[in-house]
Amino acid sequence: MTTTLIVLAVIIGSVLILAVLMGNEMKIERMINIQKPAKQIFDYVRLTKNHDNFSTWNMLDPEMKKEYSGTDGIVGFVYIWESIKNKNVGAGEQETIKLEQDKSIEYEIRFSKPMKNIAKARFVFTPLNTGQTEVLWGFYSLSKFPMSLFKPIFQNLLGKDLEKGLKNLKSVLEN
């Protein structure tokens, strides 16, 4: 019995130490170069309705319920979604919170399903030379215990989604 309690205490202690060492902040950023000027990319991405054409999450359920509040492409615009068919798409809302003309766009994302959470996302457009721009897509969130234990898995999966979305964006804009 004593050995079992010691083993159990070591396992629980190890999990707690691992959770502390891993931290609770998620920062996922991916980049791609697109053969278009920053202004053209910014003008396309700033319209949240265009995200249906490149965002892997929007593409998972093209029939999801969508609502919009405000004027698309300006600060304060809110995009609300709810997927009935795909639990991975879930439900929530995304608000445009900051625009820096031709340079960056920031969002606050408020998830309600499959779990409640608040995250930030941003696009950064960096001109490389005439007609070529580096596009960064970032996702930033806090992950509460015990979900923080799965942070490396989430970061990997979300990173792949961002990469695929950026490749889709490149394809849409360059073709």
Q: Could you tell me the mean pLDDT?
A: 86
State the distance separating the first and last CA atoms.
68 Å
Radius of gyration over alpha carbons?
A: 19 Å
By secondary-structure content and strand pairing, the structural class works out as: alpha+beta
| Proper CATH architecture | 2-Layer Sandwich
Number of domains: 1
Count the DSSP helices: 4
Major beta-sheet overview = 7 strands, antiparallel
CATH class: Alpha Beta
What low-confidence regions span 5 or more consecutive residues with pLDDT below 50? 13-22
Can you describe what's shown?
With 175 residues, the chain is an alpha+beta fold. It has one domain (25-174): START domain (Alpha-D-Glucose-1,6-Bisphosphate, Chain A, domain 4). The chain is built from 4 helices and 7 strands. It has helices at 2-22, 38-45, 56-60, 151-174, and strands at 25-34, 65-69, 78-82, 91-100, 104-113, 117-129, 132-142. The protein has a 7-stranded antiparallel sheet with strand order 1-7-6-5-4-3-2. The longest helix has 24 residues, at 151-174.
Feature tags:
33% helix; 37% strand; single chain; Alpha-D-Glucose-1,6-Bisphosphate, Chain A, domain 4; 7 strands; 175 residues; alpha+beta; 4 helices
Task: Give a topology summary.
Elements: H1 2-22, E1 25-34, H2 38-45, H3 56-60, E2 65-69, E3 78-82, E4 91-100, E5 104-113, E6 117-129, E7 132-142, H4 151-174
Antiparallel strand pairs: 1-7, 2-3, 3-4, 4-5, 5-6, 6-7
